[in-house]
């Protein structure tokens, strides 16, 4: 297994299959690339199934044992089942989706080898949900969650981005997963350095504190140094055993201004158009795989891992005033642009320096 110079082994990859989406969520950062979503029809710049599988086969050679397929909305890819079926057997395949296409396809995805699924659900009310996602697909998402459960994908993890427009719905969502077997909840801290709108950010520590008071049990998860809160259904008998099989689990993903989170990152990412990147927050480290052979992908993968840098605490450091700024050591890192000019030369957007500092 490859490791960067900070000792962080890369055990997982996150592969975007498309930047197309049938939602228009107000917080979307499109895997750190910004809101670049285009027409809903399939686009020529998207990696083919062969491209994706070729990369995964190389990653498996380095003992990468998991892949999460993302988008955009990955289920807009009609060859998704094929890609999952061709994923190396040594890799666990999971997916993040908005859930609207799970009815009718969940069983086929499981048959193809999908092990887990995250479904984005930011509210339990159709109007509130529509305000955040800019879609009227609330009922369809609920049907998708049920389809995933029926297909054997339990536990289904619900993703909820926590910011000004959703924070008030957190208690209701926590109760929802505590009351429904097979559901878990992942609260994702809003990342203004990727999206903008710093006024939407909230203090995520307040959510941690509230969950700590509510939880029957709190456990530590090594990946990203996360905390998990086990919440018992308030209507369940007092003797109910909260052991991971009863009650609900809530986990917070809190990367903003968090060096500990970055120090425990073990993933690299692949964009929908075939660029490797070592960090979600950066686009100055993109490396195009293009029409590479496996040998060339191996070398590119090695270099991407070797050049990974923890975003907070290393790439971004605090100055004398306690504000985050880019570490001079990395200012001259050359960006990698595509030879055919299909993607502009990637640059760091300066969001954190502009003052709003630090989703899966």
From TrEMBL:
Residues 333-360 are annotated as: Disordered. Belongs to the radical SAM superfamily. MoaA family. One of its GO terms (molecular function) is S-adenosyl-L-methionine binding. It catalyses: GTP + AH2 + S-adenosyl-L-methionine = (8S)-3',8-cyclo-7,8-dihydroguanosine 5'-triphosphate + 5'-deoxyadenosine + L-methionine + A + H(+). GO terms for biological process: Mo-molybdopterin cofactor biosynthetic process. InterPro entries: Aldolase_TIM (IPR013785), Elp3/MiaA/NifB-like_rSAM (IPR006638), MoaA-like (IPR040064), MoaA_arc (IPR013485), MoaA_NifB_PqqE_Fe-S-bd_CS (IPR000385), MoaA_twitch (IPR010505), MoCo_biosynth_MoaA/MoaC (IPR050105), rSAM (IPR007197). GTP binds at residues 14, 68, 96, 157, 267-269. Binds 2 [4Fe-4S] clusters. Binds 1 [4Fe-4S] cluster coordinated with 3 cysteines and an exchangeable S-adenosyl-L-methionine and 1 [4Fe-4S] cluster coordinated with 3 cysteines and the GTP-derived substrate. Keywords: 4Fe-4S, GTP-binding, Iron, Iron-sulfur, Lyase, Metal-binding, Molybdenum cofactor biosynthesis, Nucleotide-binding, S-adenosyl-L-methionine. Its cofactor is [4Fe-4S] cluster. It comes from the Archaea. [4Fe-4S] cluster 1 binds at residues 21, 25, 28. This is Probable GTP 3',8-cyclase. It comes from Haloarchaeobius iranensis. The keyword 4Fe-4S applies. It holds the Pfam family Mob_synth_C. Its EC number is 4.1.99.22. It is an enzyme of class 4 (lyase). Residues 5-232 form the Radical SAM core domain. Catalyzes the cyclization of GTP to (8S)-3',8-cyclo-7,8-dihydroguanosine 5'-triphosphate. [4Fe-4S] cluster 2 binds at residues 262, 265, 279. S-adenosyl-L-methionine binds at residues 27, 72, 120. Pathway: Cofactor biosynthesis; molybdopterin biosynthesis.
